[in-house]
Amino acid sequence: MPARFHLKDFRLTSIAEKILSGKRLDRQDGLIAAETTDLLGLGALANYRREQLHGDQTFFNINRHLNPTNVCVASCALCAYAVSWADREEGWTWSIEEAVNMAAEDLNPSVRELHIVGGLHPKLGVDYYEELFRTLKQCFPWIHLKALTMVELDFLATSSRLELGEVIDRLHTAGMDSCPGGGAEIFNPEVRAQICDHKTDGSRWLEVAREVHRRGIRSNCTMLYGHVESSADRVDHLLALRELQDETGGFQCFIPLAFHPENTRLSHLPRTSGRLDLQTIAAARLLLDNIPHLKAYWIMLGEKIAQVAQFFGADDLDGTIVDERITRAAGGTAGRGMTRARLEYLIREAGRIPVERDTLYRPVGTPQARD
Ligand code: V47
Q: Which of 3, 158, 305, 312 has the least CB density, counted as fewest CB within 10 Å?
């Protein structure tokens, strides 16, 4: 047994040997990682890998979320954010001017990224997003637009009756700099049928990501866990992401998303436990040997787990966010946004070094005064 790790589960020994010798983990290793009760042993292995990649640095960014609409033709059981087309009066759909005014609130040159996602609105076509991105770039020329998930891109192509490649090219030209990782959920079709039926399926999600990466556009990837999926579903999801990354190299960051059940059709399910949160992060860090960053999304994990996660494989806490709506609609209590000072404090207090990054993970400036 590698002496440097204190492993209670002997099955982690062969994983430790692979990690120390730089060998790739296989599906069986993934299942062990997802199911072991030796959380601290697993965490130590993931932390070893995390420190190999990033040392003591933890990244954060100064960003703002912007959700132009919550009207959505998909009616996913997992979602508390969307309103249906029939109930659209109860939701919101912003004109270009309204969206730009919303973006302008709390936006100054230290905000480097707008994270733009919304519902699948049948009347907002490619033209709307082209105009939105162009106008945002005119008003805030320094800003990076991380916009539209693979599901939204797929929907825009279908609803506008255009080739996917043309949609991506037009939006890229209009200002879409990279894409967020949402909508991946769990790729297993049987699970998808229960949590997000009638939405872009797993293989199409991967196909759209391939098309995005083929154009040199970077994206993130996610996995929604803690609902009806099994540990094997989680492992297979991660392996599918790893396989595509081998091919394209286009994913910058993986974000595990903790399911929030309140106000969804799955509200009978409990919230994720701290054990599942940390184990999912650690298993992902070990399996995804080709994706450089792993985000502990504090909005979904809460501040406390996000702090500990920095010792279970995570190297990024994401951002200031300002106006988060998707998790809050589903009972999220971590907050809508956070100050730079608080983010730096949470990282430093946990024992890591805060590094402000841009969307492409290039370090910017130096950490500022803490509260
Ligand atoms: O696409 C929806 C998920 C995603 C719920 O790429 C839910 O940098 C939990 O993708 N409980 C949006 N999750 C969040 C997201 C994201 C966040 C931060 C950074 C990045 C990035 C991406 O949240 C959705 C969906 O997969 N979601 N409803 C829910 N009830």
A: 3
